[in-house]
Design goal:
With 177 residues, this protein is an all-alpha fold. It contains nine helices and no strands. It has helices at residues 3-17, 24-44, 46-49, 59-72, 77-95, 102-105, 122-131, 133-152, 158-167. The longest helix is centred in the N-terminal third of the chain and has 21 residues, at 24-44.
Length: 177
């Protein structure tokens, strides 16, 4: 799920932290990173692993990224720029309801195996995902949020879009009430 993670991550971060200056580029990278890392390996080795949620869907991975950000950046702008990456990772785990897959979430503390996805093959796993109406509903919800945010931020304007791509910031005020 792409739009669910993009829209959900941005919405949760914006309304939790209320930081208009957060670099959304790093936030959305963190929000997509577990799937970008795990899905190719999970699909390639599905017969053995029986899951596409692997190491990058664990709290250990999120903690390692957070520690790396803290160690490799100094206080101030560099850290403020990179910390949304770790926040996005944690929000991905929340949006994936990883508490329902404790073997993966708490890997390796509950063992070295990951929670099995269920279907017998990668093809049937993908088929189940594509045919699940809940997946489409969540994707639509994420896309609707992003569309509304993009309109409020005037991302249809080329200069505004270029500024966003250069800074990671948008000009869409966050309701402070």
């Amino acid at each position: 799920m792409v739009f669910w993670h993009l829209g959900g991550t941005v919405a949760l971060a914006r309304y939790t932290f209320r930081d208009d200056r957060m670099d959304l580029r790093f936030l959305v990278l963190g929000g997509l990173l577990p799937d970008l890392v795990d899905t190719p390996f999970g699909l390639a080795a599905y017969g053995t692993l029986e899951s596409v949620r692997l190491f990058a869907h664990s709290l250990v991975f999120a903690a390692l990224v957070m520690v790396a950000v803290l160690i490799l950046t100094r206080r101030g702008r560099p850290r403020k720029r990179w910390m949304p990456l770790a926040v996005g990772l944690l929000l991905h785990l929340l949006l994936d309801a990883m508490w329902a897959d404790p073997e993966t979430l708490w890997w390796p503390f509950l063992g070295l195996t990951f929670s099995a996805a269920g279907p017998a093959s990668a093809v049937s796993y993908v088929g189940d995902i594509v045919s699940d109406w809940r997946v489409w509903a969540l994707e639509a919800l994420g896309l609707a949020y992003l569309y509304g945010l993009g309109r409020r931020a005037r991302l249809g304007d080329l200069a505004v879009r270029r500024e966003f791509l250069a800074t990671g910031r948008i000009h869409a005020p966050i309701d402070r009430s």
